[in-house]
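agent> Task received from the user: take the single chain below, predict its 3D structure, and emit structure tokens. No templates, no multimer pairing.
agent> Plan: (1) validate residues, (2) run structure prediction, (3) serialize to tokens, (4) report one or two observations.
agent> Step 1 OK, no nonstandard residues flagged.
tool_call: predict_structure(input=
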Amino acid sequence: MSDMIKAVILGIVEGLTEFLPVSSTGHLLMLERFLGFSDDEFGKTFVVLIQLGAILAILSIYFAKLWRIFIGMFSDPSARRFVLGVLIAFLPAAIIGAAAHSIIKDYLFNVWIVCFTLIAGGAVLLWVDQLEFKPKYYEATEFSLPMYLGIGIFQCLAMIPGVSRSGATIVSAMLFGADKRSAAEFSFFLAMPTMAGAFAYDLYKNHGQMSSHNITLVAIGFVCSFVAGFFVVKTFLNYVSRHGFSLFAWWRVIVGCIGLILLALGF
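)
tool_result: status=success, residues=267
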């Protein structure tokens, strides 16, 4: 299989899984392992760089709302508080991610770890789906500042591939009192600075690997990630509001088990 076809597949998977509680990085690492595309450092970097397409998918869908919040920062205290809340939620991952970047990529980007965390995360989602919450918040812009910080701390768990950034933020937001829709929507907003920071840091650390061939692969993955991410963001909120997370929980368990079987067989 050519590198370009692999880039298309990985870009589509990134866009489809980035905003679902199934771990996009975990899925990409598994596909890279079984497609033979991750045996070098660029394979790990590619996983991070194509996230930019998914970031732009959110921006394109929420541009009007984000622009209102940006303009409102100068006159609306609630808009300023929400921006501050997003920055507070982003801060823990920024600090830990920068401090432990090499450790995470060298030791945690491991397919065995991914498979086990996929299964464990699936069990957590099934547990959360059975709880009867009494939400206190129905708008992502109205969470309390301590709640934003708590979500940001939980998001750090997603530095372990397979945990899922969106899964960690959605579950923690619900445990803190958000309904399913606002929890999922805030995971979109928090994704933008988190993913943009990871993209910029990884590009800075690995810009020397960006040959013309690698740039082409990233561009292909970027476009595919954008298209797939756009589709998911447009449909995910309505789906989880009506059906919950059981579909994604069982998907995680099945994929994790299949991965363990393939690894045990020597693939």
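agent> Step 4: summary for the user.
Residues 3-264 form one domain.
agent> Done.
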